[in-house]
Amino acid sequence: MAFTHLQIRSSYSFYQSIIKIPQLVKKAKEAGYDALALTDDSVMYGVVPFYKACLDAGIKPIIGIHVPIEAEGQVTKTLLLAENDIGYQHLIQLSTYLRTNDIVHLPLDSMEALAGGVIAIVPAHTMIQLQVDTWRSIFGERLYAGISPDEVRYLDDQMLDMWQQKHDLRFAATGDVRYLQKEDIDAYHCLLAIEEGATWEPARTGEGLQHHFRTQEEMEQLSDSALWQEALVQAGSIAERCTIQLQFDQRHLPAYPVPHGGQADAYLSEICKQRLEELYGNRQDAKERLAYELGVIKEMGFSDYFLIVWDFVRYAKEHGIRVGPGRGSAAGSLVAYVLGITAVDPLAYDLLFERFLNPERITMPDIDIDFSDYRRDEVIRYVHSKYGSDHVAQIITFGTFAARSLLRELIKTMEIPQADAAYLLKMIPNNMTSLSAGLRASEELTVYVKDSEQLKRLFRIGVKLEGLPRHVSTHAAGIVISADPLIKTVPLASGHDDVALTQFAMKELEQLGLLKMDFLGLRNLTLMDHVLNGLPKKPDMDSVPLDDEATFRLFREGRTNGVFQFESSGMKQVLRQLKPSAFEDIVAVNALYRPGPMSYIPVFIRRKHGEETISYPHANLAPILEKTYGVLVYQEQIMQIAASMAGYKLGEADLLRRAVSKKDADVLSKEETRFLSGCIDNGYSADTAKEVFSWIVKFANYGFNRSHAVAYSYLAYQLAYLKAHFPANFFAELMSGVANQPEKIRQYMREAGDSGIEVLAPSINKSFGKYTVENKNIRMGLLAVKGIGAQVVREIIQARKDGPFKHLFDFCIRVSLSKSALEQLVLAGAFDSMHVNRAAVLATIDKAMEQAELFKELYEQPSLLGEVEFEATYAEQEPFSSMTTLMHEKEVLGLYISSHPLASYRGDLRSSGRIAIQQLDTLPLKKQVRLAAVLLQQRTIRTKKGQPMAFLTLGDETGEMEAVVFPDLHRQIGRFLEEEALLDLSGRIEERNGERQLILQEGQLFREDMLEHGKERLFIRYDDIEEEEVLAIVRECAKQYPGNVPVIVVHKETRKSYQLSGAYHLELNHGTLGELRKHFGKENVAVSGQ
């Protein structure tokens, strides 16, 4: 028998191999192997993709694992191979046992029950030291002694031959493969060094440590020893013995425990019919639709599935866990609606069941459920408890080496010089998909790397390591439920909260016929929950009117921050143009605002407002397209057109929709023939049929799932309703949900301010942990203060139960905080209610803490307190300047709370022609503008030529915007592009992906002297001279004393005032004031802002 590789670790043996399965199978095929093994270290992560890849390549897959077995006080890494399906099952159980119990090694005697169908290959150098009979008693004739290529040079044929005859044990050659090409050894050893935190040493790569994938000829040439040649033959014989069959054509759907041992079909029908009558009364169309759906569900064998989903959704609702209105095509099912799984009426919204479950195409149903994210795990625990820990598991995912994180690891382990390291990290940004992409993107980087052998080696190694798995994680939503114990099909590993984790990823589980369900945690449902919990009287969210004027006004004005899927500035702009007046408008724009169909939004808007004639490919399509003004928006519309014109069943129409979206020429030709034939049979002309089919093909990729759009738009509408009617509560919870995202808080604060809601600084007497409503305003939570954690907040709230804090000294006596925490609270404004300036409170902290130590004993003996007169005396201290106060707030809160550095200068900025950021959306594209702004964030990248450019986030008191600094300007201003810098900028308004941005053309620091003059204004009052004379006097003065201070003239009698243009601005000095007072009188000339 020809040699077969029986010992190959893939990259799923983390840090022990750099082999990726597709490349492994390709390499084996090229080398002429007809069988191949995968044997990772105690795990089976790669079994299914390996098995399928081998079958596709015409190679026999062999499955095994390395297991550390303890015998006679010695631990041996033993290679176990599945000889048959029984052996495969035993490997699953062994791997599960190791990965769920954190077992370092297995005692040999514990293998006895799981040795059936398992071939064991023990390294020969170890085997000769062990009691062979003990191992043989467990594995029988399936026991071999293994010889690897690294050991072959040390073979003592005579000694081993004698030992073999004595123990009647066969030798088998193993490859011990960890990388594919011989030249991959550098990458492999670098990976080992990364795991060990060691420095990579090329000297370690001696010939004796080779683990590459050898051809059969190379294996034979390692030694001409008869023993080795026989071992090669035995490896082939073992491969012949190993045959397993994975089942991909079976379903492992769990059974719902129907009361009293009843049948799932009948029970589902009973529940649905009862609820149908409650919801629809005696409506015949509803009865017919339900009967049809139940028939399809029964025929496809999915009644248990629906009952399982109904059960855990019901559990969630009964326990106050908010459930979403539905997602995906499941919202098109009447059965799902009457069961309470979804909350949108499929009959009212003309949603199609066949888009969800198609009798013409048998696939597993897929109902994904949204829960409030902070309680999702309760539902998972319920399912785990109901169906048993053996039947429920969460799904594994793998974290991999990404380009930039790998680059950091390589820099460290290869000891790249600091200058080179800094340059590489600068040239490979966080969003770079791969190291090779980084080289392709920059000619400068390519040249830089080519000049260094060390860097060339780094990139050669990096390309081989990136994308390798490095750790396991848990899928964000996926749960698998099985009829039989999962261990019969899937190896398991330890998970969270006693819920196991599958060793197979989601795709492989679905291929094996296991039922996957998504339990998604949705932050927006948590937001809704928290808003409702804060209201004295909660509205029923499933009964809110869908024609509420306040809600539609909010949509029309684009005030949709916090409204699910309607938050982007581009979407807000569309809403302001569309001016939605019906729920269908909201559904349509939600479906259209995506790459591709977005280009049809202008047509949709024009037709809605009567600015463009609504047209249809054929008049008979009006009932299908009238809600979308003749624009093909939804996938379901394609299905309805095929059914209406060409006589398709809706299930067949769904197959047509899928086919045309794939644009396969052969399939398109067949479908076109059928469509045309059907249309002609129904009385349409061939030209009309061709026109409509071409139209369908054109729009097929753009169409969106209407069921999903309706369900998620319904959730968006509910949130908008809460925002429109309970704005303070909504904004408070919205801000609490993004407490660690200052840029979001700033955005929400501005919108709240536009609604007349003020966000107040944190307060030791009034704040709680999160943002709360206070007299129709919002009080910032104490958790927003840097360095203040939940435990500190609890202590403050607990102490406050004995009454509000009277002063800093009282606070220090009743709450034990560190000095730094106290300082943070003071600088955040939390002590402002003491009516002492922040600088004075800050300067008094040491004294207050000292006195608190003395007085704490008295507080613990209330009888003594009556004899003590406590007086709070603060240090004498000048208040902080406005700018210093704001900088402190930014430091401890991440944002400005009392004002904004530019707010007090807005009038002067306006008079000098500088716009506010909120004006950007109202100005035409390409317009040149000038503005002052604070630099909030910047991201620097390199162009293909290696030149730096930057993307900036700028802010003022009215909003935030993105700006681009191209290389030429970056060379001039890059040195002062630092966060919190005040900038004076000019540029051109552009639009990218529906978002306004500024292409900067000039920039400089906003100078201090500009800030100072910006606060001053010169007022002149006059009454007995003409306006022309006033202007002449000021004009002459401006020629002599030109400056930056605006002049405002006021008529004494009428009190009419106006600000003179920039040509009349003056410099303030004695000469200016003296000249003006000579003409107008001392009492009629005044300066504000000094």
Structure write-up:
The protein is globular and about 130 Å long. The protein has 1090 residues and is α/β, with parallel strands linked by helices. The strands form five sheets. Strands 1, 2, 3, 4, 5, 6 and 7 form a seven-stranded mixed sheet that branches. Strands 8-13-10-9-12-11 form a six-stranded mixed sheet. Strands 17-18-19-21-20 form a five-stranded mixed β-barrel. The relative contact order is 0.05. It has six domains: 21-177 and 213-241, TIM Barrel (Alpha-Beta Barrel); 259-393 and 509-524, no CATH class; 539-720, no CATH class; 726-893, Orthogonal Bundle (DNA polymerase, domain 1), CATH 1.10.150; 903-1011, Nucleic acid-binding proteins (OB fold (Dihydrolipoamide Acetyltransferase, E2P), Beta Barrel), CATH 2.40.50; 1016-1088. It is found in: Cytoplasm. One of its GO terms (biological process) is DNA replication.
Query: Level of helix content?
Result: 40-55%
CATH superfamily of the largest domain: Metal-dependent hydrolases
Give the mean pLDDT: 90
CATH class of the largest domain: Alpha Beta
- Could you please say which CATH topology of the largest domain applies here? TIM Barrel
The best one-word shape is globular
The protein's oligomeric status is: single chain
Pfam family, one: DNA_pol3_alpha
Main location: cytoplasm
Keywords: DNA replication, DNA-directed DNA polymerase, Nucleotidyltransferase, Transferase
Domain Polymerase/histidinol phosphatase N-terminal: 4-71
Quick overview of this protein structure:
By secondary structure, this protein is of the alpha/beta class.
